[in-house]
Amino acid sequence: MSRDIHAWLAELEDIPGTRVFTAARARQGYHLNQFAMSLMTPENRMRWLADERGYLAEWQLTPDQADAVLARDYNRLLDLGGNIYFLAKIFSTDGLSFLQAVGSMSGMAPEDYQAMMIAGGRSPQGLRSRKAGT
User: Residues near 110 by Cβ (< 8 Å), separated by ≥ 6?
Assistant: First the structure.
């Protein structure tokens, strides 16, 4: 018996704090991720830093995506199709390390986040399903 891959992937959305980068998310975030990748060149980083809104206007982002970029709301950007490896171009341009950015996404100070990860990461105990509340 075959299983509907889309239904199976949708079940992954039930895992709290997890955003699986599926084909649907890739399609949703295509322009967002292309914008982020554009920051790989020094010329584009300079243009972005000089006029964020003007530079964003050149990309086909949704209003929600543009607002989340300007707010540096990385969790929201993940929800809107952003890929963390592409979004790294944004926070790197802002002078943040990966550790600083993901720590902020977790609501933790970078040193606390680092200590947690060195100790093995988040505990598997606790909320494991949004639907079940367990």
Answer: 97, 99, 100, 103, 104
SS3 call for 113 = helix
Q: Among residues 95, 44, 50, which one has the least CA distance to residue 72?
A: 95
Letter string b/e over residues 52-76, b meaning 16 or more CB atoms within 10 A of that residue's CB: eeebbeeeebeeebbebbeeebbee
| Domains defined for the chain, CATH in brackets | 5-93 (1.10.700.10)
Is residue 32 within 8 Å of 65, Cβ to Cβ? yes
What is the rounded CA–CA span in Å between residue 94 and residue 54? Answer: 17
Which position has the token pair 């929800």?
79
pLDDT digits 0-9 by tens, 15-51: 777 777 788 888 999 999 999 999 999 999 999 999 9
Please report where in the chains the tokens 């584009």 appear, as a residue: 44
Q: What's the predicted TM-score (pTM) here?
A: 0.82
| CA distance linking residue 104 with residue 98, whole number of Å | 10
Distance, in Å, from the CA atom of 8 to the CA atom of 25, rounded to the nearest integer, reads 15
In the structure encoding, which two tokens stand for residue 48, read together? 């972005």
* Rg from Cα positions in the chain: 17
